[in-house]
Structures are given as C-alpha cells and as structure tokens.
Amino acid sequence: MTSPRPLRADAARNRELLLAAAADEFAERGLDASVADIARRAGIGKGTVFRHFATKDDLLAAIVVDRIAALNGVGERLLDAADPGAALLEFLTAAAHQRQQRDLSFLQEAGDLSEEVTSLRTRMFHTVHRLVDRAREHGAIRADVTGADVILLMCAPNHVVSYVPDAPPDLWRRYLAIIFDGLRPEGAHPLPQPPPDGYGERVQSSAR
Amino acid sequence: MTSPRPLRADAARNRELLLAAAADEFAERGLDASVADIARRAGIGKGTVFRHFATKDDLLAAIVVDRIAALNGVGERLLDAADPGAALLEFLTAAAHQRQQRDLSFLQEAGDLSEEVTSLRTRMFHTVHRLVDRAREHGAIRADVTGADVILLMCAPNHVVSYVPDAPPDLWRRYLAIIFDGLRPEGAHPLPQPPPDGYGERVQSSAR
Amino acid sequence: MTSPRPLRADAARNRELLLAAAADEFAERGLDASVADIARRAGIGKGTVFRHFATKDDLLAAIVVDRIAALNGVGERLLDAADPGAALLEFLTAAAHQRQQRDLSFLQEAGDLSEEVTSLRTRMFHTVHRLVDRAREHGAIRADVTGADVILLMCAPNHVVSYVPDAPPDLWRRYLAIIFDGLRPEGAHPLPQPPPDGYGERVQSSAR
Amino acid sequence: MTSPRPLRADAARNRELLLAAAADEFAERGLDASVADIARRAGIGKGTVFRHFATKDDLLAAIVVDRIAALNGVGERLLDAADPGAALLEFLTAAAHQRQQRDLSFLQEAGDLSEEVTSLRTRMFHTVHRLVDRAREHGAIRADVTGADVILLMCAPNHVVSYVPDAPPDLWRRYLAIIFDGLRPEGAHPLPQPPPDGYGERVQSSAR
DNA sequence: AATGAATGAGTATTCATTCAT
DNA sequence: AATGAATGAATACTCATTCAT
C-alpha cells in the first residue's frame, strides 16, 4: 500500500506537483491531455514524469486512486451518521464536488488501469451499498433502488453539466437534486428493468 | 434536404455501411475512433470514407444530423398528443432508444461541426421546450423544471448505462424512469441552482 | 508514329480537350497538377483520362512530344533561312514563346518519359546543332559556343521569368535578348569550362 | 540572431546533419522531397526532424535563411571593392558556387516562408542593386540592365546545369560567363521589355 | 466507350515512451 | 535523480490508378 522506500524530499514534492498538474490537465483537456503539457504545467521535465509513473495510464491510475480513496473515506465516515438519507445525499454531493463541474466519469472508465484501482473501487462500491441500504431501511429512498443504481447515477450530475459551455460552478447541484428526488419514495413509479449486477453488492463474497 | 443527385446503388450501400460502422465506432471508442478502424469495420477502403465525407468531422456531422432530425421528428409529432406528460416521457424514451445502449452524448459534443448541425439542434431544442412547457402546464412535471434541464438530462440514461460492461439492452429504461420520477411534482424538493440559459428557451427570438 | 487504329470522332475530340487541359494545368500548377483537376478542366471523367493515357506520365509525355515536334518543325524550317543569326534567334524566340511566360523546363525533366520523347528530342537537338553551326559559321555567334550550350540555355528565359509573380507576358523577351547578346562574338570573354557532351552533337550517326 | 540557448552537442550535430540532408534532398527532388526521405538521408528518426523544425516549411526556411545570409555577407563585403565589375562577377560566382551544381532556385520559390526570409531577402536584393549600380557607373555593365535583372539571372547558371545528368562540378562557370558577357556593354542590343519592379530597387524607401 | 466509385500507398505531423547526457 | 533529445507507431487526408456499372 505504501511506496517501497520513502522518496527523497524533492522527488516527493515533484510527485505532488505532477499529480496536481495532471489532474488539472485531464480535467481541462480530457484523457487526451499530453504528457508534455502535464510536465510543462508541473514545471518538471518530461522524462521525470516517466520516472514517477512508468506510463501515462499509471499516472491516471494514481489520480483515480487518490480520488476513490478520498471518496471512500467520506463514505465510511458517513456510515454511522444520524440521518441516513441526508448521509447518502451528502456522499453524492461530496462525490460530485470533488472535481466540481468536471466530469468524474473516468472514475469508471479507469476500468483496467491497475489492480489497485480495481480493489479500491470495489471497496468504495461496498461503502456505497451500505449507505444505500441504510437509507432505504430508513425510508429515505425508494425500496426498489440498489447500491448499483446509485453508483451508476453518481457521476450523472457532473456529466450532464459538462456539456454546458460556461456553467456556473455549482450547477451540478441542480441535477443532483433532481436525480436524488427521483430516488425518493414519494411519487415513485415502478422500475421497468432489474438493476445490474457486478457493482459490489455482496462485497465480492465469491469475488470472481 | 435531399441529395443533389441519387447515388449509384453500390455507393449508396457503402454510404449506409459507413454511417452504421462510424456510429458504432464513435459510440464504442468515442470521438477518437480512427478513420482506418471505421473503414475496416465498414468493410471498405480508407479512401472511400473520404470520398463520401471530406473530413472525419463531416462524417460525424452526418451521423449527428440524422439523429437529431429523426429525434426532432418524433418530438414534433408528439406536440399535440393527448397526454403531455406521457408525450414527454415517450420523447425521452425515443431519444434514448435511438441508439439503445449507445452513448448519445456526442449529440452534444458535436458543438461546431457545421451550420446544419447547429440550426437543426436549435430547432430540436425548441421542440423539447414546447413539450416540456405543455407537460408542466398539465401538472405532469414539476413547476421548477425547464426545457434546458430536460435537454441536459436527456442523454443521462444512456451515459449511465455505458459504464456497465455487458448491460442488458433495455437497462437504460430503468434510469430514465428514475430520472423522470425526479422530474415529477410529487416529492419535489426545491432546486438549489437556477437552470442554465442558451438551450433555445426563447426560440432564438433575437436569433442573430 | 501514327496511332494503331483511328479513334472514333468523339474519342479524338476528347483526346484534344484532354491534352489542352493538361497542358494548361501543368503550366499553372506544375507537375503536381492532379489528374482529377485535369479531367475536370477537360470536362471529361477521370476514368477517361486513363483510357487515353495509361499513366499520368504518359499524358505528360504526349504533351512534351507535341511540343518538341512543333519546335523541331520550326527549327527545320529555319535551317535554310537567309540570315542564320536571325534564324537562331527566331528559333529561340519560338521555343520560349511556345508556352509564353511558362517554364518549359519539363521539356528536359521529361527525361525518361518514353522512348518516343527521347528519340524525338534527339532529333530536335540535332536541328539545334545545325542552326547553331550555321550561325557560328556566319559569325553571328561566338566561336566557342556549341549547340549543347544553346540547348541548355534555351529554357533559361522562361525559367528566369517564372519567379516574377505577375510578370508581363513578354518579359521573357528581355532575358532572351540578354542571353543572346552573351552568345554574340562582340565582347566575348574566354569560357572557363568546355561544353558538355551528350546533347546530340554527332546525331548519333547509328541512332539506335 | 543567435540561438536562444546552446544546443546539446548531439542535438547540434543532428541539426547539421539534418540541414545538410534536407538541402541535398530539396536540391535533388525539389520541394516535394518527403520528410521521411530527408530523415533517412540524415540518418535520424522522422520525429527528430520535427523536434528541430516544427514544420517542413520551417526546415526549408532555415536552409534558405542560411543561404541568403551568407550570400548577402559576401555581397556586402564586395561593396567597396576596387573594381566594381569584377566585384559583381565575383558575387555571382559566389552565388552559384554556394551549392555548386545544385539548383538554387528554391531561394526564389521560398516566397512566403517566414518574415525572416522575406526581410533577409529584401536586404540581399538591396545589396545586389548597389553592386549593380556601382558596376554600371564604372561602365562594367551595360546601361540598360538593373539590379532586378541580375537578381533574376543569378540562378540561371545553376538551373541550366541542373539538367545535365553528370555535369562536371564547375560547368556552371561556363554559363555564368556567357550570361555575364550578355550583361557587358560591348555588343549590347536594345532590350525589348522594361525590367520588372518589386526586387528591392528603392531600398524599400516607402517600405509598406 | 465513358464514368466515377473504390482502393491503398504515401504525406506531414503528433505523442507516448526510451535513452544518452 | 532530472532532463530533454530521439524514436517510430499512429492519424487524417491526398491522389494515381483500377474496376464495376
């Protein structure tokens, strides 16, 4: 889980600069952001990028890992909140807020980036399931909605907003509110299709 | 609206093969799908792609134009349906159904592809606004939701499902249902942000 | 020398249209002129071009053959002119005039276009040698200048002018005059290098 | 004038290899010479070409700039030579010698490559005008010849020789001698056309 | 015979990745 | 450890040439 040996002070600093620059570039330019631009933004040489991360995908994976870990932390902390409905909404708010008006979708695209991403994501999915289960038990969300549904809908507010050219930075909140209203029990109509499997329902009991 | 001269039989066939292959490639690989791959998928030579469409963007524009035109046709036909709420839901169903589990999002990314795309999209946006206005007046959807909101949410069901590896072909219906429930008046909570401008609200009254 | 079988009337007409269009395109755009543009200019289909000439090079060769033949005709007619000096100048004037302000250089570049070009060119070179020999014998040009020199200098006026953006159509006459003055006996300074071989001096007596 | 920062030793070496290879390729194949061929000839990778010069045109511009600058240097040094006629001949000799039997013509084709090429060329043209004016005042060349004429004729010796398959390396001297004899006052015949404008006659007094 | 649709080799350029300094 | 130079695979697009209509 931790790096094999502690990095030298300057190397550690470069690593942070690099991760921040890469996150910004990916957010602005999408996954096509070039390594050269990332290096320039970080103020380091292109070769140094590859010293820290063997491939561009590894760099992306590191960012995604950071994000998922942080998000999972928020989720776990919310697991014993007093109001489970409010806790779920807060979790989704945190998820969307993480990159603000940016599309978080690569969280999901980052499918086969690395073992670490996969296992960490599974853990986060499990946290979501527990948050959803608690909210459902409290009647805060409708009975026919599962953790997998919430996981899939989690990125929608950011995605939706990503098409608005100069969107106000909090516009995603509007669509999160609408979608969350769709998860509430009031006025719920029956759902036409069963939820998908494979989003960590059973905590990978017989995982693969 | 019609082609200047009718294509030769084989050329027309290739054109269809090409459009279908391109739609699939774009859907699977995103806008970076390579022309070479599209040609291979269509079973035609690379040069033939450029004989039909001068640039990759023109090819994309042709697909998008087809889609938007068809969708707008559906919308306009639904404008005088008896039940405006059902009409709106049917429109959204048609929108998502068009490419089934495929991500329709490039419909929006296709920003400045061509004059034709832009004007056609504006017209379609206007149709959505009218469908939404009618539904709202009938109390079928909440008062604080606009046409722009529906336009933005329109692609969400497909987008959401695009992350599910082997999704059943109708899974999108589940998420459309949830999101549509979020648009209903029952259990609506106040929305934290105003809707965005620029999605054809005013029928381009001062349309440049 | 003549085509194997007489062309149908329309085919013969197309051939002329094509040759004229190609000559113009090559003159305007250089040797990179595209076959498609030539066909369009001739008002015929691209496939028809290749029915008349198997390759683009063959088309070029046909033009060059026409030019060389015409030029040689002029030269042969001038062989028994009364004033050999004036005859040589007239020949060079005709050569440059043929394509007016256009560079005739492909006459030489067309080195390995075809057997026909080669043999015809050899014949034309021989004509030039005879014109030059007569002019020299009459004292109209300096003693140390050969037919090969004149052949090489023949295209220079057009070439020189080709760099002037909007040259007046007769500007080449100025440079032909200067160069021809350099060939005159008056004020001739000794030449530092011998003339090159291989420009038909000996009429390759056993020609092929 | 000097590079912003000194190149690394190996990069500097590659740059020279590249410029030399490109000059040769352009001379042999014309402006259509492919970057791939140039790279191969230089013994470097295709990508390295673009590391040194962002576009093929930039590469060409660099070559042309080198040539023009060197030539202008020679010209300026000859401005106060004792014998203006000999000075002009020496300048033309230097111009043709620069690339020996290579065609210098792209010096002129390089029309709108860059601001630098344009301004440097204007300066060189001005130098030629001054050399010519001095030579004319001394009676070394005929009265009706201008700097523009000499500029246009400057490349002719190389051009003429470029058609001779295995020309001896100094053959151009023969044609320079003939052309220069045409510029002398002795035996000059009146010129039929006025000289062209736009070759820097007035030292760009009202320079745009 | 004439057409223009189809083809694929070729072109300039980009960019992740490797390597010498 | 850091740099940036070098590399070549990949990409959109062009065009001479072939082939079905």
Automatic annotation (TrEMBL), chains A, B, C, D:
Q: Where is this region: Disordered?
A: 187-208
- Cross-referenced Pfam families: TetR_C_43, TetR_N
Q: Where is the HTH tetR-type domain?
A: 12-71
Q: Which UniProt keywords apply?
A: DNA-binding, Transcription, Transcription regulation
Q: Which residues form the signal peptide?
A: none
Gene3D superfamilies attached to this UniProt entry: Tetracycline Repressor, domain 2 (1.10.357.10)
Q: Does the keyword Disulfide bond apply?
A: no
Query: DNA-binding region(s): which residue ranges?
Result: 34-53
Keyword Glycoprotein attributed: no
Highest taxon of the lineage: Bacteria
What is the recorded name of this protein? Helix-turn-helix domain-containing protein
The protein's organism comes out as Plantactinospora sonchi
